[in-house]
Design brief:
Helix content is 56%, strand content 8%. It has helices at residues 19-26, 41-45, 59-69, 82-104, 109-129, 134-137, 140-151, 156-165, 170-175, 183-197, 202-212, 217-225, and strands spanning 4-6, 32-36, 50-55, 74-79. The termini are far apart.
């Protein structure tokens, strides 16, 4: 009768399933919840203040976990939007690689802010199409985690983007780090989901082209800048 709580920020590579979906297939009789939000593990371990989201389609399960896992420096909020919490936690790693690529070329803080903002829009388009609520992507599991991973000095995915932009191959960049940059694997799964949902994800497409097709980083940036002008509030499937 124990609840399964996933703290995994990623998608199953071959199927692009969210982890809660995968767990539901493996152990269909169990309640599943997910934990996500802006959290470098080292700071959590050191007892530094951290706020996260625990999500379950069963509000009672989420409240129970909130009560059992909260601590003075570990504040938990509940949410019933499992889809949005998981998509936000997975795809922010891809956007962190993108900002690392930009920072590695010294394109400036304006470019970084633009990538984070448009990255949030991109993640939100997919999440909403998959059944998420827009407000979730404006919260801790969306904007909060995105900002941390795209700007934090401990971000593995940002560091990988920096290394690639500065001339290292993907293999060299991964070999140089003792930890996994999850966004490298997630970008393919994100593009699978986007294709199924009919959602445009240009940043994901360009990150994938740089990592797996050896597209020069400056060409990828040029491709983004050359896209047709459009309203910021354009319909989700075409933005």
């Amino acid at each position: 009768g124990a609840v399964l709580l996933s703290a995994t920020k990623g998608l199953e590579p071959s199927s692009a399933l969210r982890v809660s979906e995968l767990l539901a297939q493996i152990v269909p009789a169990r309640q599943v919840a997910v934990l996500s939000g802006p959290s470098f593990a080292r700071e959590v371990a050191l007892g530094k203040p951290t706020a996260l989201v625990v999500a379950s389609t069963d509000a009672g399960v989420a409240r129970s976990l909130q009560g059992r896992l909260s601590a003075p420096a570990f504040r938990l909020y509940t949410n019933r939007d499992v889809v949005g919490v998981e998509i936000g936690g997975a795809l922010k790693n891809v956007m962190a690689i993108a900002t690392g690529l930009s920072d590695g070329l010294a394109l400036g803080e304006n470019a970084r802010a633009a990538l984070i903002t448009r990255g949030l829009a991109e993640v939100g388009r997919l999440a909403v199409r998959l059944g998420s609520q827009p407000a979730t992507l404006a919260g801790l599991a969306g904007l909060g985690d995105l900002v941390l991973t795209c700007t934090g000095t401990q971000s593995r995915n940002h560091r990988l983007g920096l290394a690639v932009a500065r001339g290292r191959s993907l293999a060299q960049a991964e070999e140089a780090s003792p930890m996994v940059a999850e966004g490298v694997r997630t970008v393919g799964s994100a593009r699978i989901l986007a294709g199924r949902a009919g959602v445009s994800m240009p940043i994901c497409d360009e990150v994938s082209a740089v990592l797996f097709e050896a597209k020069p980083v400056m060409e990828a940036l040029a491709s983004l800048l050359a896209r047709d002008p459009r309203p910021e509030e354009e319909h989700a499937s075409r933005a």
